[in-house]
Amino acid sequence: MWWADERFLPEGDAERNETSARLALLDSVPLDPAHVHPMPAEDGRRGVDEAASHYSQTLLRESRQDDHAAVPSFDITLLGIGEDAHVASLFPQSPAVHEAERWVVGVHGAPKPPAARISLTLRALAASQEIWLIASGAAKADAVRLALSPAGSVQVPAAGARGRERTLLLLDADAASALPAEMGRPASP
Questions:
Q1: Are 39 and 4 spatial neighbours (Cβ–Cβ below 8 Å)?
Q2: Whose CA is closest to 135, among 76, 72, 98, 86?
Q3: Which of 23, 54, 71, 167 has the most CB atoms around its CB within 10 Å?
Q4: In-domain check, residue 189
Q5: Is residue 33 part of a domain?
Q6: Which residues, listed in sequence order, are joined to residue 166 by a DSSP beta bridge?
Q7: What is the pTM of this model?
Q8: What are the C-alpha distances in Å from 123 to residues 8, 75, 183?
């Protein structure tokens, strides 16, 4: 289990994705801790860029020959879509969406607090066999529509999040409300 992004806050901070994931699921299931790879926490010793570099090295160390890439081939990457069409901590027009070389970046000045974050890049996300994009609520309807448009990933990072084999959208009716009629009616389980 890998993280696509993390708020660069101290370990255990309630705003960290890791903290929420542990409370909601990870601490309740028998999962080998060696297979859980949270992004580094702010510890006062290293900055966000150094922490991102450290996570990138962890990815490189864990990649297998059958991954055919410098990072692990993720089976499924679950990403929420923000109202501005961001995914992970890749915000529209931010330097992170322009990154073409690195797998993990430190994010400075994120438009949503906290400003400092760590994020996989679109290049790293592209190592996913499947990407599942999740959104709920009418406030995300335009972002969902744009994610399915031919928009560029610099302006609409969600448009650049595509799985190698499949991209699945998990939407409620409100989030799907701006989709073109020709897409048909969304299916439900």
A1: no
A2: 86
A3: 71
A4: no
A5: yes
A6: 130
A7: 0.92
A8: 21, 15, 28
Which residue matches tokens 């073109």? 180
* Contact status, residue 119 vs residue 87, Cβ threshold 8 Å: no
pLDDT at residue 64 greater than cutoff 80: no
Q: Measured between alpha carbons, how far is 79 from 75 in angstroms, rounded to an integer?
A: 13
Asked if 114 contacts 108 with a C-beta cutoff of 8 angstroms, the reply is: no
| Burial group, residue 64, by CB count within 10 angstroms (0-12, 13-18, 19+) | exposed
pLDDT band at residue 110 using 50, 70 and 90 as cut-offs? very high
Confidence of residue 73 (pLDDT cuts 50, 70, 90): confident
Range of the domain at 158: 5-183
Q: Which two tokens stand for residue 65?
A: 């020959």
The predicted-structure confidence for 3-52, as pLDDT tens digits, reads as follows: 999 999 999 999 999 999 999 999 999 999 999 999 999 999 999 999 99
3-state SS track over 42-93: CCCCCCHHHHHHHHHHHHHHHCCHHHCCCCCCEEEEEEECCCCCCECCECCC
Contact 126, 97 (CB under 8 A): no
Q: What is the CATH number of the domain that holds 101?
A: 3.40.50.1360
